[in-house]
Amino acid sequence: MSGVPAARERPAPTVVAGVVERLARDYGARASTNASVREQHGHGEGLADAALPDVVVFPHTNEEVAAIVRLCNAARVPVIAFGIGTSLEGHVAALYGGVSLDLSQMNRVLEINADDLDCRVQAGVSREQLNAELKGTGLFFPIDPGANATIGGMTATRASGTNAVRYGTMRENVLGLTVVTADGRIVRTGGRARKSSAGYDLTRLFVGQEGTLAIITEIQLRLYGVPEAISAAVGQFPDLRSAVQTVIVAMQHGIPVARIELLDELQMRACIAYSKLAGYEARPTLLFEFHGTAAAVKEQAEMMAAIAADHGGGAFRFATAAEDRSQLWKARHNAWYAALALRPGAMGFSTDACVPISRLADCVLETREDVERSGLVCPIVGHVGDGNFHLLVLFDPNDGEERARAEALAQRVSLRAIRMGGTCTGEHGVGIHKLDALVAEHGDDAVDVMRTIKRALDPNDILNPGKTVPPERRGQA
Amino acid sequence: MLPPSVHAQLAAILPGEALLTAPEATRPYECDGLTLFRELPAAVALPDTEAQVVAILRACHAARVPVVARGAGTGLSGGAMPHKDGVVLSLAKFRRILAIDPLARTAVVQPGVRNLAISEAAAAHNLYYAPDPSSQIACTIAGNVAENAGGVHCLKYGLTVHNVRRVRGVTIEGEVVEFGNEALDAPGYDLLALINGSEGLLAVITEITVKLTPKPQFAQVALAAFATIEAAGEAVGKVIAEGIIPGGLELMDQAATRAVEQFVHANYPLDAAAILLVESDGTPEEVSAEMADIKRVLTDSGATEIRVSKDEAQRLLFWSGRKAAFPAAGRISPDYYCIDGTIPRKALSGVLHKIAEWSAEYGLRVANVFHAGDGNLHPLILYDANVPGEADKTIAFGDRILDLCIEVGGTVTGEHGVGVEKLRGACNQFAPAELERFLGIKRAFDPHALLNPGKAVPTLARCAEFGRMHVHGGELKHAELPRY
């Protein structure tokens, strides 16, 4: 993992103290310097590399966010947007101290336009909260990264998840934004119109910028009709290759599967033990979910079963009842904890390679061999329908040599994906951990363009400094 | 005229027949599909390698000569209109499809490949390229990317931006850069989205990877007639509100159906005030279930007649009038002006009502033919440029429609781009803070504003001319910005 870039420095303690004092005066108890609050805001769910902010502030309105950003911009003090802290790549670590802007109290669903299939929410609304408020409208928001992240955080990291193969990522589902720019102005981008070819696409530029170009405060989202019928199926395979080939052939046939998840033998063993799944074997497994009319769902499932059988998959088990489905998906959502339980005391992190589906088999199988050579314990899970898979790399935190081996393995996974025309991060984002891989993937010239955009929109480098785009070319820093 | 030193450099880069400077040779490049605006360029360059593109851009950058990239010249907003002191950089010779990956469902193509040529090449794998602007037989894929082009299928399958995975381009400084990649997502800022719809202001595109879509096994179209255009507009909203996303959802009013019927003989119900064409595609089972829902919603919305295509020939016949609408408008009126405003679907009925009211007020006929499903209006204002004052009246009418689109929460252009045509509209649509962000991005790519100057993004000075920019106490914000 790359070290902390050195371009920026911490602001002087007196300057920070001035900002803290001003925030305390303006926001009272909503500005906290309490050690445990700061500690909680210094890291996400990835590797522990906590870096504490000097103060955490909880704004309630766009205007308050704008005022805080203006204050920080004038003092050149970093501002780090914080949702719920589920990011995996160190996105929220306050590398240079400063203000953690916790948007969790901006959690209102502002409007639901059932006729236009869209809604507008504040950044702190969580994914589960939104779907709970949509109950009764016949609509839902499909993007599901697993964690109950905030919509603001999902937008900032361009999250996707288990059903991107059918519904796309945040990129396809954000229609417009309200953001606060580095100079503290409130800008509304995009709109309710379904298409526009006017002006540069600021909305998509701000989707995935990880809080480095602007603070996202409101999001206009696309919604979908709750499918008439949903069914889930499980297929188990003799080996990893047949499971992956099944996915590739299904995609080739254009079966509109809503989700396909791959669990390798090791992950399946972990899930059976952790989630008490009865009747499954520890073999490479695919979980499918089909959405549509009753007829369409049945047809898709039958086609899928036939393809799986061609690849040596055993009989499909179907789960049409909601409880059976949720047991399966709960097991998938808990895959991370199940994997950690494989090696008590171990820590873990996840790789995020994503390749064109035609290279998926090569990439997964080479990675599997690489894991075997490394001697590490690393189960594989993946939203393989869109070419994205995760290696959950477990290591002993007290063994420096093993941690180095784990990091080297992860680095090789990233480079392998890039070599195959893919990416080192399909959905988790860059944060601080993938800065080197970003350059490996895009080349210095394209990263230079990103740097100039960063400078154009945040000349004082106050917005989440040190993340997403390495500040200088290597060797120039 | 080009500075002689630049001319000499370009002549050294390109073979003689690939550098045009004589007015009779550059005349065909004086405008694009928006013929209202014309300009002869200083030169037209027709490179056929990326290395030549790099060399041309470096030479122009060094001498501060403007460059306007051009595809097939089918754009409708003047985006490819030349600059009088500049070079038109035509990508017409880049016509090769470099690779098709049927498993990953992608095609790697050169910028001058025609939109339809991609679908033709992919047909062998039972795939196609979904966005289908009406000009798809002629327009190039790089032009589609530059304008973020749409089409009938975009409602279900997304715009150009949703169907492009990777773009390789050259900056004005001659750096070759790649945006996006072949996989689902790429880390860092979404520069790929910035390039889509950038109207040639950020980079010259030299290679594109597009997403291909499996051809649906089966498709059917329902033709529904309505007694009022407002009722048809409301039916559109109801179809979508039911959670049905048709493969195409188009509206034609009576002026349009009557104009096309005499050419295509589609047997449209000519007494209806408006018709909707609603397509369903998928497996036969999916289509039959969805068609039943569509018919139910249309009936509930007051359709006076519904016909569902019985076979492929009839499906194509139903669509033939829609595809022929623009040429047909040209046959019933000496001139027409096509508007591209896009609005939230909810506002359709009200906006259509207003357009009808203003049509009477201005004494100008309007034919409405448009992508109703995504709220993308294309009112065709019919006029005669030879009648004194009629062109001005047409522009005033069009501006009023666009202002209304912004007022109801829409945009001045759904798929044609801003170009030179809608700069005034863009000043109204975007607040100064947003325009400043645009200009910041432009400067990051092209600090001397050499790529397609004067298009797409109005300068703040331009907006001040239109009375939109607020100059406080005589202080001009961002005095350092180029204003021309």
What does this structure look like?
The complex is a heterodimer of chains A (477) and B (484). Chain A has 477 residues and is an alpha+beta fold. Among the domains of chain A are: 13-104, Uridine Diphospho-n-acetylenolpyruvylglucosamine Reductase, domain 2; 109-225, Uridine Diphospho-n-acetylenolpyruvylglucosamine Reductase, domain 3; 229-338, Alpha-Beta Plaits (2-Layer Sandwich), CATH 3.30.70. Chain A has 17 helices and 18 strands. In chain A, the strands form four sheets. Chain A has a seven-stranded antiparallel β-sheet with strand order 15-12-14-13-17-18-16, sandwiched between helices. In chain A, strand 5 (109-113) and strand 6 form a beta hairpin. In chain A, helix 1 runs antiparallel to helix 3 (62-75). Chain A is globular. Chain B is α+β, with helices and mostly antiparallel strands. Chain B has four domains: 4-90, Uridine Diphospho-n-acetylenolpyruvylglucosamine Reductase, domain 2, CATH 3.30.43.10; 97-214, Uridine Diphospho-n-acetylenolpyruvylglucosamine Reductase, domain 3 (2-Layer Sandwich); 218-407, FAD-linked oxidases, C-terminal domain (Vanillyl-alcohol Oxidase, Chain A, domain 3, 3-Layer(aba) Sandwich); 433-484, no CATH class. In chain B, 36% of the residues lie in helices and 18% in strands. Chain B is built from 17 helices and 18 strands. Chain B has helices at residues 4-13, 23-26, 50-63, 115-122, 141-147, 154-157, 191-195, 229-241, 254-264, 284-300, 312-323, 325-332, 348-362, 390-407, 423-429, 432-445, 460-465; strands spanning 19-20, 43-45, 67-70, 87-90, 97-101, 106-109, 127-128, 164-170, 176-180, 204-211, 213-214, 218-226, 248-253, 274-282, 305-308, 335-338, 365-370, 379-383. In chain B, strands 15-12-14-13-17-18-16 form a seven-stranded antiparallel β-sheet, with helices on both faces. A five-stranded antiparallel β-sheet of chain B has the order 5-6-10-8-9. Chain B has a four-stranded mixed β-sheet with strand order 1-2-4-3. In chain B, strand 8 (164-170) and strand 9 (176-180) form a beta hairpin. In chain B, helix 8 (229-241) runs antiparallel to helix 13 (348-362) and helix 13 (348-362) packs antiparallel against helix 14. The longest helix of chain B is centred in the C-terminal third of the chain and has 18 residues, at 390-407. Chain B is globular, with a radius of gyration of 23 Å. Residues 467-484 of chain B have low confidence and may be disordered. Chains A and B meet through strand 9, helix 8, strand 11, helix 9 and helix 11 of A and strand 9, helix 7, helix 8, helix 10 and helix 15 of B.
